Fold each of these.
Amino acid sequence: MIVTLTAHPALDRSVALDAALRPGEVQPGAPGREDAGGKGMNVARAIRGAGHEVLAVLPLASDDPYAALLAATGACAYVVPVAGHTRVNLTLTDPAGVTTKINLPGAALSPAEAAQMIQTVAAASEGAEWLVLAGSLPPGVSDDFYVHVIDAVRERWGAAAPRIAVDTSGAALAAVVERGRPDLIKPNEDELAELAVVALET
């Protein structure tokens, strides 16, 4: 089994415009699709689609519209109750394929909610082969949040702890590499250059 953590889920909403985006004007658009997003959830869907067992952990309010989209994925999920609602990522696409993205901020997690999420991930990791920590961190948690998750999982399960993969960026990635000792990281070239303090020539 593989466990994924989506600490900062997003409701991904797309709209198809009938013409090029005209800032400052009102123009019609056709509803595209809505998906339960966030990098960890995207990973969970891919794992499930490949026929493997996956357990997704994420924060979610009971009245959040994200819940219906999550249920539609069919993924097995451990939900950590929180007060705030999931952020929305809006994608506008015109007939020529030009895309404009608008990403709204997510709700901040309280210290108690963050602590509960760490405990839930540690409990969910029993018997797992891999734990995937993927995506950005929500407001309200420190840059080393993933480090605390890793420490809690390894402290609880010792030699039986799952291998840990991390896909994040910026200060969160730097903290994981410095102190978390993950088994796998997946930076892109820009993230790797930032981590190594190397300027890309092209």
Note: The chain is about 30% helix and 30% strand.
Amino acid sequence: MRHAVYAGSFDPVTNGHLWMIEQGEQLFDKLTVAIGINSDKRYSFSLEKRLSMLRASLAHLPSVDVVDFENQFLVNYAKSIGADYIIRGIRSAS
């Protein structure tokens, strides 16, 4: 099974995030969307609200799980959940 993880703060979730997730869902058998928690960062939305927004936005994608993780490098988190791939977006074309 091809399992990938797509991580971010999703504060808030954007159309760009949703596009990346929908593309990833088509490429992999399972996609974990993980909200990374950084205690040094201030967020506009609570973790619970960000989880809720993502889950509501992705309810039509059955192979996508929405979770959170804290105090780990992304590569270590991916390994801990059995994901062999990490999806990353591009912030700017330049």
Note: The chain has a mean pLDDT of 94.
Amino acid sequence: MSPDPLYDAHGRRISDLRVSVTDRCNFRCQYCMPADGIEWLPRDGILSFEEIHRLVRLLVGMGIEDVRLTGGEPLVRRDFPRLVAMLAAVDGLRDLSLTTNGYLLERHAAALVAAGIQRVNVSIDALARDRFFRITRRDSLGQVLAGLEAIASHPEVRPVKVNAVAMRDFTEDEVMRFCELARST
């Protein structure tokens, strides 16, 4: 006998799950983290890949169909493509996606695709290098765009989305740059 499906307080069936695989991040975005960082959770305070796999497997048995892997920054987690492969093999999981800042995406794109990632969402808050630096406190726009290009070169990963946080009086004029990026790629 399978467990009862999950429902929220409004009676809607819950079919998607976000799993934060780490609290660590290689950026220090102004809206997310202080410039000097935060105190990280101890390693034993983070679920192991086996624990995440077991949890996802149990929740899929209760009606979860879509899993999004998040963080912190998931790609800073050692051997992250191995976790993707473990979850992609869960019977009944329909969609496995990743939200990332993109910095390490070029390095891991092929391994993520081989492991079974299906969709990717890359957070990029600005396409002007100086603004990107002011937001993330990292001069890494080139690496992020290279990561976006690397994952987009794999047709089996679709859609590839770009996510941005709009900030009044700071990134409003970035809208046209994002429109051009969408149009050109």
Note: The mean pLDDT is 91.
Amino acid sequence: ALVAYSHALKRDPNLVALYSRVGKLLQDMGDHTRSRETFEVGLQIFPQSGDLWSDYAEILREQERWEDVLNAYLNAVQFRSNDDGLHNNLGNTFQMLNRPDEAIIQHRKALKINSQDARSWVNLGNAFLMKSLNDSSLTAFKKAVEVNEKYAGAWVSLGNCLERLDRKEEALNAYSRAVHLDSNYEEYVESREKALNKGIIDD
């Protein structure tokens, strides 16, 4: 596949989508340097391709090059400003860089475009937690489970926030909902339930 794609690009270097395909394939093969180089060549030719910038950001995110990820997403969102997923990913990147104020701005932009995305509500709540804005975080997590009551991760986040607010019974209920929806959370929820039940007995 790599040989075929590379041959196609040599014949026609204006096939913008192939730069992403080759870059992703090289990433999957473990050749991170050539993967980045492929995207950079494509972006020199197509600097206004929001799709190419977005795909490049995903590759950089896998490599945990967070400053480069930020730059790629900032470029992508210039050309796809109405893409709630991009704003959400940009917000998450700001969180990884410990910049919660900018993260909150991006998550709010994402939710302005699509208010029914439970993951964006969870990410907004997490950004609020970084600033110890527990009440605002609680509101966001409650909105997440309201939008999608089958999203187990949102129930876990809600439980964590309720713990911070010392609302132990409500936290237990949230954790119970999470593990009912997704058994992968069973071990984590059991640990939280033990801690919370001990706290309730001690109280």
Note: The two ends are 63 Å apart (CA to CA).
